[in-house]
């Protein structure tokens, strides 16, 4: 089973590229972030036409997550990260799909810092840690994917100096991410690429793609029940180089049945 994650950076602007990727790679489950669309205006029919069921947690103009499932609808869908009833940003959706519990998230960026945006990021990560601890305790096979907006280690960025003041690489952000791993979650891409050097994001500015100045912020975390089934994980890097591409590349994990 292939489970994929793709920060699409605007589903309507990237729809041809997204449909192209889905038909060429055909993941069983595709988790999208930053769809920048309300639920009622999401192009659901286009995905249904190629055999995908759709669940969304959208928001006008920014944020938003979606869950696409091949041939089988998701069940027990929950929208929104628990723990803060005043949080209206659409960044989290979870559901049961094909015997796996899927968590799809778009974690806050946190820039500029210091300030309320960075405080929100850290508070959001605390809430996420609580939810993932609950899922770990349930012993349900669980895969947590998405744009975490965290560069976990120096090996995950083309230039430490270039990003040292960014919220993605601050000690607090990295510590919060490490807390998740220490609770028993396996970072699939890091496990298979322990030396690093794997990027999932290249900025549109300063020729970052052409110069391969990227970093890894899109992650795939596996509960112990799924880590035992890890077959492969990687980045569909070539899709970043196509016309009108997202600034992220899709990432994926393959689990044995």
TrEMBL record:
Query: Which E.C. number(s) belong to this protein?
Result: 3.1.11.2
- Which key words are in the record? Hydrolase, Magnesium, Manganese, Metal-binding
PROSITE patterns documented for this protein? AP_NUCLEASE_F1_4
Q: Report if keyword Nucleotidyltransferase is assigned.
A: no
Instruction: Report a single Gene Ontology molecular function.
Output: metal ion binding
- Residues at site: Transition state stabilizer? 149
InterPro entries hit by this protein: AP_endonuc_1, Endo/exonu/phosph_ase_sf, Endo/exonuclease/phosphatase, ExoIII-like
The protein's required cofactor(s) are namely: Mg(2+); Mn(2+)
Q: Which residues bind Mg(2+)?
A: 7, 34, 147, 149, 247-248
Q: What are the positions of the active site?
A: 106, 147 (proton donor/acceptor), 248 (proton acceptor)
Coiled-coil annotation reads none
**Pfam families in the cross-refs:** Exo_endo_phos (PF03372)
State the similarity comment: Belongs to the DNA repair enzymes AP/ExoA family.
Task: Write down what this protein is called.
Answer: Exodeoxyribonuclease III
Show the taxonomic lineage: Bacteria, Pseudomonadati, Pseudomonadota, Alphaproteobacteria, Sphingomonadales
**Source gene?**
xth
């Amino acid at each position: 089973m292939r489970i994929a994650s793709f920060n699409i950076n605007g589903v309507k602007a990237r729809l041809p590229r997204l449909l192209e990727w889905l038909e060429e790679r055909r993941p069983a489950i595709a988790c999208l972030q930053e769809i920048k669309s309300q639920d009622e205006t999401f192009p659901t029919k286009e995905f249904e036409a190629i055999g995908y069921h759709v669940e969304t947690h959208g928001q006008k103009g920014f944020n938003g997550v979606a869950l696409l499932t091949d041939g089988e609808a998701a069940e027990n869908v929950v929208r929104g990260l628990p723990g803060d009833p005043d949080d209206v940003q659409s960044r989290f959706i979870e559901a049961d799909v094909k015997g796996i519990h899927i968590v799809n998230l778009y974690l806050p960026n946190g820039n500029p810092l210091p300030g309320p945006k960075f405080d929100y990021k850290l508070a959001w990560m605390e809430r996420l840690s609580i939810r993932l601890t609950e899922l770990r305790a349930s012993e349900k096979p669980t895969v947590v994917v998405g744009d975490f907006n965290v560069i976990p280690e120096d090996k995950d960025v083309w230039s430490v100096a270039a990003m040292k003041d960014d919220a993605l690489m601050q000690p607090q952000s990295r510590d919060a991410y490490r807390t998740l791993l220490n609770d028993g979650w396996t970072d699939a891409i890091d496990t298979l690429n322990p030396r690093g050097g794997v990027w999932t994001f290249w900025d549109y500015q300063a020729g970052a793609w052409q110069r391969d100045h990227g970093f890894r912020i899109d992650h795939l975390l596996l509960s112990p029940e799924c880590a035992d089934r890890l077959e492969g994980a990687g980045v569909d890097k070539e899709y970043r180089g196509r016309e009108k591409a997202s600034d992220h590349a899709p990432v994926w994990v393959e689990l044995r049945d």
